[in-house]
Amino acid sequence: MLNNIKISQTTNEIILNVNVIADINEILEELQLKLPKLRDFYQTSTIPMRVTGRLFTENEIKKVKTTINAEIPVEIKFDDISDLLGLHAIKKTFEADTDISETKFIQNSLRSGQREEYPGSIVVCGDVNFGAEIIAGGNIMILGTLRGVAHAGANGNIMAMISANNIDVTQIRIANLVREVGEKVDKCPICKIEKNEIVIE
Prior knowledge:
With 201 residues, this protein is of the alpha/beta class. The chain folds into two domains: 5-79; 103-200, 3 Solenoid (Pectate Lyase C-like), CATH 2.160.20. Helices cover 17% and strands 33% of the residues. The strands form three sheets. Strands 5-7-9-11-14-15 form a six-stranded mixed sheet, with no helix packed on it. A five-stranded mixed sheet has the order 6-8-10-12-13, with no helix packed on it. Residues 86-91 have low confidence and may be disordered.
């Protein structure tokens, strides 16, 4: 049985905590299995539902809302980047020079389950494997292959960029933008924001 969604309740809301690396199709499939029990709860309650733990694209948000609301007519909220990172005071993008920044060097590969977070830039002297997370306020440079979650400019800086020897992920994140990556990208790509979208050069 799938286990990408953990459901909990507070006084004011029902919380769906979604695995950060879960595929959207797996999430939707698991929702179909768990919604009947939630539907029983909502026969006597009207508290809103909050989805957290994973950053969703606009299209994914629509799919999740449609799936839930087909069973339960409830208000659904999604955490944004600043909520997920605990950066509650930062809600908007900004531009700050990233040519020179404090940098953290990680002298090994990151395994599944490992998480590195730093307010400046991060350089990984190895791979970022599937299931690992790397979150930087500045740039992210990976000397090996990116297979996990990478989020540059996580405090909202649209001047940040991501570069790796190879990129083999489904999506990358810079500031408050997310880009779906359809296939493996080779030849030391540089990912940055141009005209309010992430481009891969």
